[in-house]
Task: structure prediction
Amino acid sequence: MTTKSPITTHILDLGGGRPAAGVAVSLYNVLRGRETLIAEGITDDDGRIMDWFDTAIEKGHYRLTFETGAWYQQRGLDTFFPQVSLDFQVSDTNAHYHVPLLLNQWGYSTYRGS
Result:
C-alpha cells in the first residue's frame, strides 16, 4: 500500500496520447519570493507522483516545476516550454491538492483535480 501525499500530480502527454512517464518534478514552498525545495520525484509509468511525503502540508504558496524540455529531448522532440512551473495556493491543510498537467510539445493546461 502506498501512502498518498497531500500534494500529488499527474502528467498526460496529449501529443502521444499516453501518460508522461519519467518526467522529473520538484515541489517548492514559496515564501516572500524564495523557493524552498520540499520534494523531488520522477513520474511513474502512469505519469503520476503520489507518494512524495505523508506529513501534513502548511497553508501557503507552492510551486511544481516539471522538467519538460529534458523529457522531450530524450524522445528526440522539440518543445516550446523547456520547463513548466505551476504556482498554487494551499488554504485548507486537511484537503488533498492534485495538480495535473496536460502537456504537448507546444502548450499545456492544468487544473485542480481530485
User: Anything to note?
Assistant: The chain has a mean pLDDT of 95. Residues 26 and 40 are 4 Å apart (CA to CA). Residues 7-110 form a domain with the Immunoglobulin-like fold (CATH 2.60.40.180). The chain has one domain: 7-110.
